[in-house]
Amino acid sequence: MKRQRKKYKTPVRPWDKQRLEKERELVKTYGLKNKKEIWKTLTFLRKYRTIARELAAKKDKETEKALIKKLVVMGLLSEGANLDDVLGLTMENVLDRRLQTILFKKGLVTTIAQARQLIVHRKVVIEERKIVYPSYLVSADEENKIQVLMQIKQKEIKSPEVVQ
Asked: What is the CATH number of domain 98-155?
């Protein structure tokens, strides 16, 4: 059985007031479940920044193009980007590519919390696949293929009878 590893690294200073306030604002803005989702995003970003710094030192153009192409396909960078753009990526860039955020920004749902609920309740489909993870990173070509399956049951509303 394969051992599961942590997919994030916790902050070095756990009680840093500025960081806590910024994280609280991000959780509220992007409708995150907890701060662990922020830490996963930071670890994801840290990974690609480290690769970009190593490639800048090695000056390996072929691998550099492959990295940039991968990030363009993910929708994090635009065509014609370079390594400086990879190093300039922010946490907000990655959080904007989450399925939960894209549903809200496209106007398919009314609130960010509703987006999370619909995803978890298996009401969101991308290319005939049900996605159940609000943190799913939507690639650029998948963005236009998102559908919300809504089955609204309307109850009969009976008017109260007036007793005379």
From this structure: 3.10.290.10
Closest residue by Cα to residue 41 from 89, 110, 105, 104: 89
Rounded Cα distance, 76 and 78, in Å:
7
Can you give the pTM of this predicted structure? 0.86
Does pLDDT of 63 surpass 80? yes
Whose tokens are 């756990």? That residue is: 14
Question: How many other CB atoms are there within 10 angstroms of residue 91's CB atom?
Answer: 16
Q: Which residue has the tokens 């690639």?
A: 139
Is residue 31 within 8 A of residue 116, CB to CB? The reply is yes
Alpha carbon 53 to its chain's center: 24
CA–CA separation, 109 and 118 (whole Å): 9
| Region(s) of the chain under CATH 3.10.290.10 | 98-155
Question: For residue 86, what are the CA distances in angstroms to 50, 81, 94, 161?
Answer: 10, 8, 12, 67
Contact, 157 vs 139, CB < 8 A?
A: no
Q: What is the pLDDT of residues 67-96, one digit of tens each?
A: 999 999 999 999 999 999 999 999 999 999
